[in-house]
Write a structure and sequence with these properties.
The chain is α+β, with helices and mostly antiparallel strands. It has 7 helices and 8 strands, in the order ααββαααβββαβαββ. Strands 1-2-3-4-5-6-8-7 form an 8-stranded mixed sheet, with helices on both faces. Helix 3 packs across helix 5. The radius of gyration is 18 Å and the shape is globular. It starts with about 60 loop residues before the first helix and ends in a 7-residue tail after the last strand.
């Protein structure tokens, strides 16, 4: 889950700490994919466990409150986007570039998943509908410190457009908890991403990036609960995937702890352009153990 990892930047040494998921040799890589934000924007444990929040204690701005109100009960707007107001397919021609190949087993069709903090659904981003909300989150100083996407809407739009108009290896989603959009996710094929140059990627390895956009949901264990739920959802819906990966900044101790509590293991540390990352792995084989 990645709100607390600085953006990867092209160039820089690709040295790494050898571990079971890393080759012992080193080299140079250029990161041009989307795998640059894997961390949480808050420590996560069980709700109400009293752990200190590692983000700024911010109140919701009037603009963000208004944006959330506009989104309302999200299932209704998401259904209308897919099917039109009467439940039929929306009018208009298909996008000129055609549908992206399905590299992630139809993330948009994955069912809602239950968690200790509520029912979460991953809703693929629609630029016109979601850009203002995601931009507002990216301009929260606690998020901007790691995602480095603060600025006007076009900054966020460019980041989203790379994925939405790409080859389908990364799918940006809103995390809708009990009907309310409160987080931003990127589900991506780690084996097809430049992160694979830094570890022994296996076919269909799937990566997760996450930021918690809703300030009241930070520091209460919500991130940990959702990480476990979504990692398990990935393993349920992607039968060929044996591992779910993430790469939070090693300085973000709270984020690493959240992954550990969510059933991930720390495989190794690796130097990536822009940060030293902790490679976190949730294994299908250890799913019932951790």
């Amino acid at each position: 889950m990645n709100a607390n990892g600085p953006e990867f930047r092209p160039g820089g040494p690709g040295s790494r700490t050898p571990g079971p998921d890393f080759p012992a040799d080193t080299g140079t890589s250029h990161h041009t994919g989307t795998s640059h934000h894997t961390g949480t924007s808050q420590p996560t444990g069980k709700p109400g466990d009293g752990e200190a929040d590692d983000t700024l204690d911010l109140a919701l701005s009037d603009e963000l409150t208004r944006l959330l109100a506009e989104h309302g009960r999200y299932e209704e707007t998401e259904h209308a986007t897919k099917h039109g107001p009467s439940g039929s397919a929306p009018d208009g021609p298909a996008p000129a570039h055609g549908p992206a190949p399905d590299l992630l087993d139809a993330v948009g069709d994955w069912p809602a998943t239950a968690s200790p903090v509520g029912t979460l659904r991953l809703v693929p981003v629609v630029m016109d509908r979601d850009l203002r909300l995601i931009t507002a989150w990216m301009n929260d100083p606690a998020v901007a410190a790691y995602w480095e996407l603060a600025g006007p809407q076009e900054v966020t739009a460019a980041h989203l457009r790379t994925q939405l108009e790409g080859d389908g290896r990364s799918v940006p989603c809103l995390g809708v908890l009990d009907g309310v959009p409160m987080s931003y996710w990127e589900v991506y094929r780690a084996d097809l991403d430049p992160i694979a140059r830094h570890c022994r990627a296996r076919p269909h390895d799937t990566g997760l990036h996450l930021l918690i956009g809703s300030v009241p949901d930070r520091g209460r264990g919500v991130g940990t609960a959702l990480l476990r739920a979504v990692a398990d959802l990935v393993l349920d819906r992607r039968p060929d995937c044996g591992r779910v990966l993430a790469e939070p900044d090693v300085r973000n101790v709270a984020s690493v702890a959240a992954f550990l509590k969510a059933g991930f293991r720390l495989s190794a540390e690796v130097d990536l352009p822009g940060k030293r990352a902790a490679l976190m792995v949730r294994d299908r084989a250890l799913r019932e153990v951790l």
